[in-house]
Structure formats: structure tokens, C-alpha cells
Design a protein that fits this description.
Layout (H helix, E strand, L loop, with lengths): L1 H14 L5 E2 L10 E7 L4 H4 L6 H8 L4 E3 L2 E2 L5 H10 L5 E2 L14 H4 L3 E2 L21 E3 L6 E2 L10 E3 L11 E3 L3 H7 L4 E5 L12 E2 L24 E2 L9 H5 L10 E2 L7 H7 L5 E5 L22 E2 L2 E2 L9 H20 L8 E7 L6 E2 L17 E5 L7 E2 L3 E2 H11 L4 E2 L21
Parallel strand pairs: 2-15, 2-18, 3-21, 4-22, 5-6, 11-14, 11-15
Antiparallel strand pairs: 1-23, 3-20, 7-10, 8-9, 9-19, 12-13, 16-17, 18-20
Helix pairs in contact: 4-10
Length: about 450
Amino acid sequence: MLRKAALCFFAMSLATVGFAQQDHPRGIPHLDHVFLIMMENHGYQQVINNPNEPYLNSQINAGRVNLATNYFAVGHPSLTNYLEVVGGSNFGVRSDNSPDWGNTACSPNIATGIPNADNGGGNAPIPIDTGNICPIWGTGTDAETPAVDTWNEIAGPFIALADLDGVKSVSAAPTAGKTIADQLADAGLRWKSYQESLPLGSASGVNYSNGTVTNLTDFTDLAPLTTASVVQDYAVKHNPFAYFASVQGGSDPDNSLANVVGFDGPRGLFADLAAGNLPSFAFIAPNQCDDQHGRSNADAFCAFDYGENNSGYTYGTQVGLNPGLIQQGDVTIERLVKAIHKSPAWGSGRSAIVIVWDENDYSGSTTQLTGLYPSQNQNRVVLTVQTNYGPEGIQSNNYYTSFSILKYLEAGFGLPCLNHACDPDVHVMSDLFGEEHHW
């Protein structure tokens, strides 16, 4: 009863919210398939011309892909950016906390106005929620993204962390608790979230997995192994759709956790690619050893990569990076791109592959609280686009953010813009998709 009432109110709320969902930009040609590959935790200058990233750099240097040279992730940490890419908002979430699975009694952060955050600096100036994240639905207000963050997600020796370019900020704004997945389902189009190293069975309640065991596993018969023994390859924080009431509730079978699948298996990414049975929107998240995130209890090629050496922290540069982790991510990109190119779906219609990093490596400042940050400390990351129909080798210096990619994809699928993707200063990535600009 509570679930039905919540979903009913959710639908009515969205129907009456005009501020968060507006008409889409005109003149953007239709897209049939988009493959969005999310990589992790490396800034622009750490990826470009990195000798341990040979495949992607060869594609850029040979002009086989289009490159955004002035693209910025909005905030920190990972989950915040994933939500912004698919929903145009942080939805009041500025942490990597797990979902409060199936809780119909709690109030989403956009409703309470209290952000879910980590308070890494220990001096939060506002009330915060540090628990699991209430399923997102309804309407409300998201959380501000300051240009410089002095209290949440502070890492290493830093006293301040740059969001965006360290100058621009994003004000809290009226927000609808939905993503492009909800929009696609409403329009009769399909989406899938392909998550490497998901376990067999449903993704419901799974916060992490090595592909076999999860946080839900009973370790009674596995002693002396414990949950601490598990390499967290799959992480729910990289699966943004799992945080929404519509997907958790699953009242619409085309907009449910059934859309969350692994790379392998009969409904997985590689099977779908081979059959050409692809959704309109394929959200592809390699595991944390293959996306350049890294884990502390994995092998040397998956070791965390903070850019630290004998001279101390070298955030924002290639000095001190784990060459194995970089190479593992690059090989993963090559494997995915070549599998997409071989798919029957790539040979027909209008399709695009987008490769993007979620955020930089938390580069910050040990002394500076405000003002311009050096380029290596900004939240500038790599984004490339390759299409099966348009020009290649374009390098765009236009200022783009996570909201820009969402705005273009929505327009390409004939959907209205959503949340901050509707902001007047958010430009559509037309040039990277081989089109003229349509602001």
C-alpha cells in the first residue's frame, strides 16, 4: 500500500513540475543507440598522452574520436557525478553511501533539504545526513555544489577541494526525482545499466560484489573468510539507477532492477552486443579494477592510484600513478569499443559511443580556499565521442559539464531536458556529435 501510494504521488508530482523538465533543444537529429562508458578518478592531464593509456590516446591522436578539451565533472564523490550524468542533479546526495533499499517510510533528501554527505573535514556548516540514501522520488530541492569545498570529501593533505573549475558553482534548485531512464521508459524506449562483476540473480540489495559473493552473502560456511576478504569489484555507487524508487519498486517491468545486468550471461552486455539486441541507452560501468578506480585488497594492477610517491602527494599529474591500473582501464576501453563496433547495432541507424571519467583524483589545495585553481587541480576530465555517422577528429574547447552530455542525449532521444540540464548556461554538445550548435 505504501509503495503504491508513493509511486502514485511520484507520478503526480512529476506531472505538475514544469521547472524541472522542459522542452528539448530543436534541430538535434535522432539517436538510435548510445553507449556511455564511465571511467573513474583521473583528471584530464593524467589520461591525455599517458604512455600507459595507449589505445585511447591513439584513437584521439589519429582523429578517430572527438575530444572535449574543456569538459568538467561537477562535484565529488563518484555517486554525485553519476547521478548528475543521468539525472541532471545530485538529488541532495554528496556521498557514496549505499541505498536504503526498499524503504518507503523515509523522505528523500530533495524533500528534506538535508544533503546526504560524508563530512570528511569534520566541520560541516549545515545539518547533514550520513546514513544510507533514501530512495529518490517526488520533487524538492537538490544540494548546492560550491566552487570550493572545504568540508565534504576532503582527501589527502588538502584543506579545500575544487568542484568544476574551482570558480563556478551550481546553486541548489528545484528538482524532480527522476532520470533519463524514467524518461526513456515513459517514451516507450529501452535502457539498461550494464555493470561488470554483478553477481548472479537480482541486483536488489547488492551494495558490492566480486561477481560471486556480495554484502548479502552468508559467510558462516566460508570461515575464516569474511566480508573484508571480498574485492569490491561491483559497487552500487557506480549504478545510479539503483537509488531511485521507480527502479527499486519495479512496478514498470521496463523500468526496474531487471534492467541492471552484468557484462556476461544471456542478458548481459556481450550477449546483447553479439545479438544486436541493444537498448536505446546503454550505461556501461566496468568494475573498480577495470575503470581505473582501484581497490586496496586487490592485485598490484588494481592498487589504489592517488599519485603519491616518495616526494609526497602529486595529485593532478601523471607522477606516481599506478601504471598497471591505467593500462588495465585502457585495455578495458579497447575491449568494449571493439565489441561495440562488431555489433550489428553499430552498422545501422545513428549510434554513438561516449567515454567519460566521473571526476578527477581529488586534486585540491593545501593552502588556497578560494579563487582560481591550477589546471591540474580542477575537476576537468576526459570525454570522447565517436559516432557511426559523423565526422571524427573534432576537438572542442567549448565549456561543457556533466549536465551538457545529459542535455544532448535527451534531445537525441526526443526527450525534454531534466533538472540542471535545463539551466540556460548548460550548452548542448552538438559539435562533438558532428552537428552544429543548438543552445
